[in-house]
Amino acid sequence: MYRMPYGFGPTAGPRQGPDYKRFDCSNAPHRWQAAVSFLTDRNHLDRLLPPGFALAGDPIVTVEFRVLSELPWLAGRGYSILKVNFPAAYNGKRDKAVGSFCSVLWENLADPILSGREELGFAKLWCELPPPRIMGDRVTCTASWLGHEFAILELTDLAEAEPRNPAFPGLGGQAGDGTLHYKYIPQTGEWGKAAVAHACLTPPTGGPTVERLRLGTGRVNFRPTTWEQMPTQFHIVQALCALPILEQREAWCVEIRGDSDLSQQRALV
Amino acid sequence: MYRMPYGFGPTAGPRQGPDYKRFDCSNAPHRWQAAVSFLTDRNHLDRLLPPGFALAGDPIVTVEFRVLSELPWLAGRGYSILKVNFPAAYNGKRDKAVGSFCSVLWENLADPILSGREELGFAKLWCELPPPRIMGDRVTCTASWLGHEFAILELTDLAEAEPRNPAFPGLGGQAGDGTLHYKYIPQTGEWGKAAVAHACLTPPTGGPTVERLRLGTGRVNFRPTTWEQMPTQFHIVQALCALPILEQREAWCVEIRGDSDLSQQRALV
Amino acid sequence: MYRMPYGFGPTAGPRQGPDYKRFDCSNAPHRWQAAVSFLTDRNHLDRLLPPGFALAGDPIVTVEFRVLSELPWLAGRGYSILKVNFPAAYNGKRDKAVGSFCSVLWENLADPILSGREELGFAKLWCELPPPRIMGDRVTCTASWLGHEFAILELTDLAEAEPRNPAFPGLGGQAGDGTLHYKYIPQTGEWGKAAVAHACLTPPTGGPTVERLRLGTGRVNFRPTTWEQMPTQFHIVQALCALPILEQREAWCVEIRGDSDLSQQRALV
Amino acid sequence: MYRMPYGFGPTAGPRQGPDYKRFDCSNAPHRWQAAVSFLTDRNHLDRLLPPGFALAGDPIVTVEFRVLSELPWLAGRGYSILKVNFPAAYNGKRDKAVGSFCSVLWENLADPILSGREELGFAKLWCELPPPRIMGDRVTCTASWLGHEFAILELTDLAEAEPRNPAFPGLGGQAGDGTLHYKYIPQTGEWGKAAVAHACLTPPTGGPTVERLRLGTGRVNFRPTTWEQMPTQFHIVQALCALPILEQREAWCVEIRGDSDLSQQRALV
Asked: ipTM score here?
């Protein structure tokens, strides 16, 4: 598999080791996840959908913070993720799918951002994701960009629950056919035109091991953000900040071992 | 202009402000640059060329470290660059061009990496680029990835020279038709196939103001690097480390005001 | 000169090189500085004074952001500073002095914080200080701690002025006898007692070269901060946040070459 | 308890919350630790001892990497540690003690460095400590300073062992009377003289809960380092780099809950 720079030969990454083989992900990485969900206004969400997509079911937004460690493809290193999903359906010329639409996903390391955008069509961006603050049954996760804090996720009253798999109806966004994405790469020199523009699907993956599950209450807060504060991302934070929180829904904190390498990812037409 | 995430609308960036207008780059950014060049073995360089490219002229590699500041599109912020260029020619079905081929380029901020790769076809990667160490007529620049230092650029005996424009024959890689690139984006789900694969050209841009020029001697050192040390980039560092330094050539340090927004970038077929 | 760890021998630092000699600071470091001053309430400031100190003259607070580069003692590296000064007098048993009291000073590198606190008695703390955002005649400087932005300095309408030395009455806090500090080190095991507690004085230093001076208007904003957001420094930010801004005073942006190594620093009794 | 800046009032820290109370450390922080020990030459170690100290028992150096999380005094945040200990005895005018001497300790956050140096007399310095790389039964920990990697700790063949408390004879350096330190603060203005100079003792603390213990083999590698690479710390790394490794000893990886707040720390005379 190649990525830029092309001339140096194939690039190792999540789905291809230095020996061109895939990695064993059955027992690693370790994933610590905290998630908060809320009911919002259907019209606000509708405006965030790419072409061919429509809302499916209740307009419930799930914001999840993940800490990945022991990643085989990063030689045992890790990184963190903040992602915003909601249920949607894709209705293409050939393909139809219903699932959890990943509207935006932040990571604090550029390497998985590049392979995720270009190989998988994940809408990944970079920001700072400090390690979560854990105080007994309370958890606080934040996201900032060059010092400007734009998102705060707070979970309280976390109580132990029986681990199960899937741990939670909405957990991991694997409801329905899987997770939906919209891949878009511009055409060089023809500004405004696309070189690549199509939906993508992450099918549900076999069962990682849920080691611990805690349920509680939670709240997410996206903060008002100007162009000067985040000149390439302010429009995203503003749109998320504008989503009304009509009702708080489930909040959970899980620890999981094992993952998919996402090599089942495919384009939808 | 759109980039992922698509659903939130157009994304501001180097060639498009929050008001959809272009930025005035006549007096900013400020660029501090230190560069070292050396003669290497033709066969080694030849292996680093993408399809359709051939070496042109002497196999002289130029390694340049740039510190950009006062960038209008980043609301006055900056970032740094390390890039490796050598002269090459592209011979396409329709287009022919000779110039400076940008084989790989590192930046220490993800946002320009994403727009650079996807809009322009620049082979940008992320690494840490600490501010240059400046001790009178000596300059040291280094690059590391999560703590592993993989490149060291050292310039000594820097002496003031008359500013001129272009400041140096090889300066800025603008010889010939401009700077050459190879854009490559994989096809999702069809691993090993390309969704986008073509050469790109950055035409020479009008004259930025050279405020200061110093000439001296210099040396670049790429360090042996294992997969465990840089699991997504070791093959690049190893290839650069293997380039024999047959003869040191020019080394220079310049300070420049003004730049192009690279909106003249175009695809070559 | 020793600092902890003691057993490895003398520690090189700002006032002692690896050869035990002092550094030549006549032409380096380079200092970029932006400062804002304002008139505040006398009673609020009074509460921030250590034992033996009293306000002197108008209660004018100066908040200054500095970017140091080309530091000889850091082998050509640099770091940044945010400091909060106001005029005060020290009336000791033996010594009397009037000057600019440095109430708190943040730096974004631990090494000068340690030598500054322990050798000089500077009240230095650590925070993140991103490079200033420079947009023509506007400058924005910010400070954050692990992602929580707690101070924003904004200067606008900056216009070129004749460089002079001292560039400005309040510039660099060198009015009167120099800059005043209060050194305090706790007694190990006897919690609440001091091992070291006395005032210190930085005498005015000979003239660095002012290369550029711009005057304008400015504003500083310290943001409300909880214990959870900055568990070791919230009380400082809260006190600064509570200072009423009765009147904006001078704002300036300067570039300077050369500095003192502060080896004239002395204890006041 | 006060620390600089004094004028803003008492400073919260590891041994004092915002309400002036101590923190409950019975179940948090969480500590992940990897340690390697080796037999070295007695004469080399002897030179690293402060006044009043002598080696005690075999010259065995233990290098330990710790990842702390869920720290109550940091509102649930964490940081990492790299420390170098060996057995020594202190023979003072009044006090005698035998224990594990902490010759140097690096942390990747300035706030605990300041309270540790000034309140406790720990020889703490700052460096970058990336999260450990964990690949099944292998662990790699590294330390760097502004991009220069100066220490690498590698553990292999880690096998589960029965958790016990103390988990290991040498574990945590709590053998004998506890951990020994040498506090040193310079006298301002009288360069070369001490304001504070005495030994300190950390008595053994009650039992934290060992959750997991793995034993294996390991190796530590300090890399040759110049003044230019680490201008304030090169002499320490050089001394550690020069220690001959005569024989590898125990290597272990533990996970622990609960800790002491070190308020039993006391001066030795």
From this structure: 0.95
